[in-house]
Design goal:
Blueprint lengths: L1 H17 L6 H12 L2 H6 L10 H8 E2 L14 E2 L9 E4 L2 H9 L3 H7 L3 H15 L5 H7 L5 E4 L8 H11 L9 H88 L4 H19 L2
Parallel strand pairs: 3-4
Antiparallel strand pairs: 1-2
């Protein structure tokens, strides 16, 4: 695709270089036919301004090759491609004075670029008058195909061409909006707004559900952690109790009786230093028990 486009550009540049900046007719026909057959022109229409200029150009651009007749001796009337041929043709007739006056109102830079200078305008008008005076004009081409050109006079009293536009509108019809109407756009915007609100509401519900699910999961995890910690503490307590049972039995059997008697005696005697009294009592009784033991 890129190679084909590059080749076409090279052909166009070569043609313009050989013809003083103008394209050859066959290249113009090819470009125009491609454009006129596009979906944009087919669906929305098109305007050709100033081209074709001659009968031969119109024939080359719009005509299709006719098929041979049934007897093979004669050919049927030439047919044209109705898909790309204009439905309306308008000819704007303006005196040379009006055209010169309008050209003089154009800035100098624009006039030079578009060929509106005095010399260029006079040459273009001369070519136009010559072409219009030929036997077969571009208007004749359309007349032969029942597309009758409508001639509209342009005067100096209508600088904004309001009368010209009015006549063209009467023939063609009011401009058509190929896009959606204002009501359709408003309905589409309302639909989009409703869809947006529904989407936001749905997202809010989903976000709330995610938060609730997250909180519920945290609560469950906390409850499970609490149960696990309770179970761990219970097992630790049981293990400590199991480990401390022999020591408790030893204390209850060998220590607590002597200690209890020592505390009773301490309460009866009431020594000045109860702690020393208890210590001496325990040592004394411990020594007595050792002597009594075999």
């Amino acid at each position: 695709m890129q190679a084909e486009t590059r080749n076409q550009l090279e052909v166009i540049q070569d043609s313009m270089a050989k013809n003083a900046g103008r394209l050859e007719d066959h290249l113009i026909f090819h470009i125009l036919q491609d454009k006129l057959n596009s979906k944009l022109c087919t669906n929305q229409g098109f305007v050709l301004d100033g081209f074709p200029e001659t009968y031969e150009q119109a024939k080359s651009l719009f005509d299709e090759e006719p098929e041979d007749s049934m007897d093979g001796k004669s050919k049927v009337q030439p047919v044209y491609n109705q898909r790309i041929t204009p439905e309306h043709v308008f000819v704007l007739n303006a005196p040379d004075a009006v055209l010169s006056e309008r050209a003089q109102g154009v800035p100098q830079s624009v006039a030079e670029e578009r060929g509106y200078t005095r010399q260029a305008l006079e040459a273009r008008l001369a070519r136009y008058r010559l072409a219009s005076g030929r036997e077969d004009t571009v208007w004749d081409y359309f007349d032969e195909r029942e597309i009758h050109p409508e001639h509209i006079e342009v005067t100096s009293d209508d600088p904004e061409s309001a009368a010209v536009l009015r006549k063209i509108t009467e023939a063609v019809g009011e401009p058509k909006n190929y896009g959606p109407s204002l009501e359709e756009r408003e309905a589409a915007e309302c639909s989009l707004a409703e869809a947006r609100q529904q989407r936001l509401a749905l997202e809010a519900v989903e976000q709330r559900q995610r938060k609730e699910a997250g909180l519920a999961q945290l609560v469950n995890q906390h409850e499970e952690w609490t149960r696990n910690m309770t179970e761990v503490r219970r097992q630790q307590t049981e293990r400590l109790e199991a480990r401390s049972l022999p020591l408790r039995n030893y204390l209850m059997k060998y220590v607590m009786p002597t200690l209890s008697q020592a505390m009773l005696d301490c309460c009866t005697v009431k020594p000045e230093d109860p702690i020393d009294y208890l210590a001496e009592y325990l040592l004394r009784n411990n020594a007595e028990e050792k002597e009594d033991s075999p």
